[in-house]
Specification:
By secondary structure, this protein is mainly β. The chain folds into 2 domains: 83 residues, SH3 type barrels, CATH 2.30.30.830; 118 residues, Cathepsin D, subunit A, domain 1 (Beta Barrel), CATH 2.40.70. 10% of the residues lie in helices and 48% in strands. It has 3 helices and 17 strands. Strands 9, 10, 11, 12, 13, 14 and 15 form a 7-stranded mixed sheet that branches. It has a 4-stranded antiparallel sheet with strand order 3-2-1-7, with no helix packed on it. The chain starts with 10 loop residues before the first helix and ends with a strand.
Amino acid sequence: MIVTYRPVLPFAALLLVALVFSPLAFAVERIEVRGLFAGSALLVIDGRQQLLKEGRRSPEGVLLVSANSKFAVVEVDGQRRKLGVSRTISSGFSKPQKAVVRIQSGEGGHYIAPGRINGRAVQFMVDTGATAVAMNLPTAKRLGINYRIGREIVISTANGNAKAFLVMLDSVRVGDVEVRNVEATVSVGDSPAVILLGNSYLSRVEMNREGGVLVLQSRL
């Protein structure tokens, strides 16, 4: 008779093996970016400061996906977040809520809403027929937009063709729904009288109608 001997590991050893070969399951509560470099980032993870390189994971399970001098992309529990210096994410990394704004239709069925361009207050009229956000020359000057560095183009208006400049806006916001790096046209003249919120913005948000209300929602 052949007897096979199988050594029995003590409980402590079994626990050690489980810890070594099991995936990390830490609950990270807070991450703050203290420094950004090409290919690495200085993070404070739950009060502990550490320097991570791209592709490396901290003992808490935080993966540094990428980093440059402007921002870092981190991943925790399958969720990726983009952070700049001194930006903090916390509360167990709950999924961020989408920003929503509701615009009531006005006279003539037009949707008019206050908003901001590059942080400055403006008034928009939603125009799904406009290729880009569109404004006249006096408005661009008031907002401090350097239209002269834009590309000179010709646009079609109700009064025929007109000269315009194609520019890039840093940000366009309606309510809390903000889009960065938005194309816009600056017409040489006084038309359009109101800033048109065109498809260079609208195509980058979720848009639907609920009765007479236009609903704009950010995309995560």
